[in-house]
């Protein structure tokens, strides 16, 4: 299990973002050399030095400091779309190999390279900017239906990372709430929301609030 690339974005003006200034950092490209990773703060942007996160209402901050996508998922989309997808094309900071990123547990800890430790918090919710960047009709719906969103992370221990670094799972929590399940619960299968409470200690606050609100309104009935 390793990093194939570390990807950073620069602010770019585009016609397809909801940002008032029309600027996005979604077009992330692989970089050489080490990149510093640290918690950006609750109102900060990216956890990677030199990476642009322009839409901070729904991106960035401590609970979404780093975004990872499996190369295997990009390869599957290449076959579906019939076009090449470079590392970073989905706006991910980390493109991994040998890891089922969407199958990671909420609260799972990854050691990346010799220093950095990251904690899984949630899956990525697709948006209009993502669809515009890909240039694929109906992309938000298609991405959601596949249910392999990649994972957001908090920074537990800062440090430097680079392409080729090994990735090790150093902690797996005692529950069964995966990123994929969390994503389905907050998008297409709201009856799954009560199950997210088993991961409440590490879950992204927005997802946790949705789960608690659902339970208050409907109780704890849930489906598999």
Automatic annotation (TrEMBL):
InterPro entries: Benzoxazolinone_Detox_Enz (IPR052353), MoCF_Sase_C (IPR005302), Pyrv_Knase-like_insert_dom_sf (IPR011037). It comes from the Bacteria. PROSITE patterns: MOSC. Residues 29-170 form the MOSC domain. Residues 13-32 are annotated as: Disordered. SUPFAM superfamilies: PK beta-barrel domain-like. PANTHER family: PROTEIN YIIM. This is MOSC domain-containing protein. It comes from Streptomyces edwardsiae. The lineage of its organism: Bacteria, Bacillati, Actinomycetota, Actinomycetes, Kitasatosporales.
């Amino acid at each position: 299990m390793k990093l194939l690339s570390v990807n950073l974005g620069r602010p770019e003006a585009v016609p397809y973002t909801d940002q008032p200034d029309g600027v996005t950092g979604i077009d992330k490209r692989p970089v050489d050399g080490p990149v510093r990773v640290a918690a950006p703060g609750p109102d900060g942007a990216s956890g990677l030095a030199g990476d642009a996160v322009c839409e901070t209402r729904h991106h960035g901050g401590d609970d979404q400091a780093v975004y990872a996508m499996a190369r295997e998922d990009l390869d599957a989309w290449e076959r579906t779309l019939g076009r090449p997808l470079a590392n970073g094309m989905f706006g991910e900071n980390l493109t991994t190999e040998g890891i089922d990123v969407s199958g990671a547990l909420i609260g799972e800890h990854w050691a990346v390279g010799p220093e950095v430790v990251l904690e899984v918090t949630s899956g990525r919710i697709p948006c209009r900017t993502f669809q515009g960047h890909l240039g694929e009709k109906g992309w938000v719906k298609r991405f959601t239906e596949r249910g392999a969103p990649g994972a957001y992370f908090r920074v537990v221990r800062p440090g430097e990372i680079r392409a080729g670094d090994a990735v090790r799972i150093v902690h797996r929590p005692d529950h069964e709430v995966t990123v994929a399940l969390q994503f389905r619960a907050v998008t297409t299968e709201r009856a799954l929301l009560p199950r997210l409470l088993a991961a409440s200690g590490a879950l992204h606050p927005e997802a946790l609030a949705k789960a608690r609100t659902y339970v208050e309104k409907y109780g704890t009935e849930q489906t598999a």
